[in-house]
Design goal:
CATH class of the largest domain: Mainly Beta
Oligomer: single chain
Shape: elongated
Radius of gyration: 19 Å
CATH architecture of the largest domain: Sandwich
Mean pLDDT: 79
CATH topology of the largest domain: Immunoglobulin-like
Strand order of the largest sheet: 3-2-5-6
């Protein structure tokens, strides 16, 4: 996978393909800063999947954006985000740990509840405005 911006340092053949999913309702910044001569930083929107190359020893820092700041909310070893590729190119799967699957499911449920509450609020405001 070619990364046009911020390519990995040359001479490092030990690369892995990684995937991170922002399963929150907040914008996040994904950053790798512990690899010498390389800096990686991307904005990850809610629900977005970020696929990138990294070194196995790299750590992905997740900064959650608030109104005027960002808070370091998680640090994930990139070897835990490694994509497991099968022989068939159409059957590539992402190997997620049980804990990560639970977090994604919990956050998806929270998003659905929040969407339902927002819809109910809009409906009640519309009814109040019309009535």
């Amino acid at each position: 996978m070619a990364q046009i911006l911020d390519p990995l340092p040359s001479g490092n053949s030990d690369r892995i393909l990684c995937c991170y999913v922002n399963a929150t309702s907040h914008i996040q910044i994904a950053r790798i800063s512990n690899v010498p001569n390389w800096y990686f930083e991307r904005v990850v929107f809610p629900g977005q999947r970020l696929v990138f190359e990294a070194m196995p020893e790299a750590n992905l820092e997740i900064h959650t954006g608030m109104m005027a700041s960002a808070i370091l909310s998680d640090t994930i070893p990139c070897d835990r985000l490694c994509i497991s590729e099968g022989n068939d190119s159409e059957s590539n799967t992402i190997d997620l740990h049980d804990e990560e699957k639970k977090i994604i499911n919990d956050n998806t449920r929270k998003l659905e509840i929040q969407k339902k509450r927002n819809l109910e609020t809009v409906e009640s405001l519309t009814t109040a405005y019309i009535g």
